[in-house]
Amino acid sequence: MFYDREKELALLRTFVESEPNTIFFIYGPINSGKTTLLMEFSRRLSEDFVPFYINLRWHAISSPSDFLNILFSIHRGKKDVVKAIVEDLPGIIHGIPVPKALLREVIGNHENAFSYIIETLKKIRKSGKIPILILDELQKVEDLKINGPLLYELFNLLVGLTKELHLAHVFTITSDSLFIEKVYSEAMLHGRAEFFLVDDFDEDTAREFLEELGFKGEEIELVIRHFGGKPSYLTLASLHKDNLEEWCRGELDTRENWIKFKLNDLKRENGIIYREVIRILKSFMDSEFIKIEDVSPGIRWLVKQNILFLDPKKGILRPQGRLELLAIRRIVG
């Protein structure tokens, strides 16, 4: 369910109204509504734009060929691909269309695939339309290699599409803040990338959203006390109005127990990192975030487990949401 992201939508519109020049990395805590925002943004675009959405989230990607297969979709019509894209395909296009006869050649290697993308986007621009490329959960290709990391080959392509050729606007989406930290530190992207935080709702917006869902007074405060402005939990709460307090307590108990299990596993595997992790968690007893200057092994473990969220742009570390903050304080309090 989409709700009140007008400020973010306005910023995204500003980005695409200028010449393509930058890769935009959309990041934020888990379940903060990043994909929902980009989908709503794409639906609201004028006919001057052609948005391509590549969803890596639900695919098993163990090789470069897996990734190339996901990038493209088969065009079965008789009309020229670009003409079909510009004239016939409405709204968001899932995958970059390729004629069936060319598919094997295009996905045969990454150079053919990337060349096809560039030539197709050039033709779309020549038609007067502006392509937008959205890559969701880009971190899933982080460990793939083609004579070196595939990710760097992909970054070179995306820099070419934006900074050098000005062919397309590029947005990538990720909830993996370790990946964003790595990208943020990447020298080859300095001056070529922008980082756009999509956070949970603030409390005022969360209250308004819950009112829209039919909640009142103490119900609203109960939900916010447990989940803050996490959009996914606010929406889920509407399914549990009849046993709201019991459900809220149950979600907190479940999250607390899950974190305890993970901590116990870590304690058995690596006592040194475990002790560091406990020290970090105790920092949140009287604060909702801490400033950091380095990603230590303990921080890396907590972020990888989606217990904490790392914002490299602001240099802060905080729980993924209100639920995690409450669970942490129960565990180390």
Low-confidence stretches: none
Just give the CATH class of the largest domain. Alpha Beta
The secondary-structure class comes to alpha/beta
CATH topology of the largest domain: Rossmann fold
Which oligomeric form is depicted? single chain
* Overall mean pLDDT: 93
At CATH level 2, the architecture of the largest domain is 3-Layer(aba) Sandwich
Terminal Cα span: 35 Å
Helix content: 40-55%
The CATH homologous superfamily of the largest domain is named: P-loop containing nucleotide triphosphate hydrolases
User: Per the principal axes of the C-alpha atoms, what is the gross shape?
Assistant: globular
What's the order of the H and E elements?
HEHEHEHEEHHEHEHEHHHHHEHEEH
Query: Tell me about the biggest sheet?
Result: 6 strands, parallel
Summed up, the helix count is: 15
Got a strand count? Answer: 11
> Which radius of gyration do the C-alpha atoms yield?
22 Å
In the sheet with the most strands, the strands line up as: 4-2-6-7-1-8
Total of domains? 2
Beta-strand proportion: 15-25%
Keywords: ATP-binding, Nucleotide-binding
InterPro entries: AAA+_ATPase (IPR003593), Archaeal_ATPase_domain (IPR051667), ATPase_dom (IPR011579), MJ1010-like_2nd (IPR049081), P-loop_NTPase (IPR027417), WH-like_DNA-bd_sf (IPR036388)
GO molecular function, one term: ATP binding
Protein name: AAA+ ATPase domain-containing protein
